[in-house]
Design goal:
mainly alpha, two-stranded parallel ribbon, Cyclin, Cyclin-like domain-containing protein
Length: 348
């Protein structure tokens, strides 16, 4: 999908959510001059406001992986200035354990309905942005996760489906109206810009720089575990996590791995000391969950067999003690939505 098509898609999503455009309307509605001008105005505002984060496939629209990487890094710098991340404190507010649980649910749910890695990664990025920006009572946390996944799916997938179908495939009892209200609240928190930098996009860009994107499917499960570990995601930016992961891949296939990784670190302006610190933590995480460390044999194995092994409905496990509570009162807003008629079990 081209970047122009993705911007147009986000514009249509915005109009649908606020009730201006019928759910059955398609992109062809924008053939009219007035609507086309409206879309172009919308797109120019998003681009000039620093929201030109890339999405879709690499090397399209004349955008190289290097250009895309710079765009993602610039966007990340604007959005993620305060690290480590922290959650709002207060009775009934969520903690890192709940965050990890819901991210594991998001990854399992994405696999269940056949979404690609980019959708799950974007959903987690949206979810994290929301839970670290506003105060969220625990009873609403699963609804926020569902809304984040729904928005990511609409942005990353060409095929659109009605909300009742989406909820039914996930075996959830939220109503379509409840999902729509939650999506609106999430987009308000994001200031109507859900094209966030995320782990998968950074890894894809970095591997493209090394002409090694074929390695990406072989670490699908490894990336899922990174997404679900707040000890890593709250202390390291997505770019650092991605570069550290890629460094472990390159090390498995080339004894001179330091040279290309140092070059990428300079390109991303990331200190190697931070990369090395992150590498150790990632290795420990994979070892703790008994994931195979990347090796030449592992990376060059039949990718189809690996996909069939990984694409199961069983939710990811997570270590509830892997992240000490880090509380903050900086986020003062509440995000609320009507509670579902029946609370959903977290595993999908």
């Amino acid at each position: 999908m081209s970047m122009l098509a993705l911007d147009e898609k986000f514009y249509i999503l915005s109009l649908r959510l606020i009730g201006f455009l019928p759910q059955s309307a398609s992109c062809r509605i924008f053939a009219g001059d007035s609507m086309q001008k409206s879309f172009e105005t919308y797109r120019s505002v998003r681009l000039t406001s620093g929201s030109s984060a890339a999405a879709g496939k690499l090397m399209q629209d004349g955008i190289s992986s290097t250009q895309l990487l710079h765009m993602l890094l610039q966007r990340e710098k604007l959005l993620y200035q305060n690290y480590p991340l922290s959650l709002a404190q207060g009775e009934g507010m969520i903690g890192w354990r709940e965050r990890n649980r819901e991210c594991a649910w998001v990854c399992a749910a994405a696999r269940r309905i056949g979404l690609e890695m980019d959708a799950a990664s974007l959903a987690v990025s949206i979810f994290d942005r929301v839970v670290t920006s506003v105060r969220i009572p625990g009873k609403y946390i699963n609804c926020v996760a569902v809304g984040s996944l729904s928005i990511a799916k609409k942005l990353c997938e060409d095929h659109e489906e009605d909300a009742p179908v989406f909820l039914g495939r996930l075996r959830l009892e939220y109503s379509a109206q409840e999902l729509k209200r939650m999506e609106l609240k999430i987009l308000e928190v994001l200031r109507w810009d859900a094209n966030l930098p995320n782990l998968n996009r950074f890894v894809e860009c970095l591997l493209s720089e090394l002409e090694a994107t074929f390695l990406l499917p072989s670490i699908k499960k490894h990336l899922d575990f990174l997404l679900c570990d707040s000890a890593l995601t709250s202390n390291f930016r997505w770019s650092v996590l991605a570069l550290s992961t890629v460094s472990l891949l390159v090390e498995a296939t080339n004894k001179h791995w330091q040279y290309p990784i140092n070059a990428l670190a300079r390109l991303c302006k990331i200190p190697m000391s931070e990369v090395n610190r992150c590498r150790v933590k990632i290795s420990n995480l994979w070892s703790r969950h008994m994931l195979p460390m990347p090796s030449t044999f592992h990376l060059l194995a039949d990718l189809d067999d690996q996909d069939s092994d990984m694409d199961t409905d069983s939710p990811l496990s997570y270590d509830p003690s892997s992240h000490p509570p880090a509380l903050s009162s900086e986020a003062s807003e509440y995000i609320t939505s009507p509670a579902p008629r029946a609370l959903q079990p977290t595993p999908c």
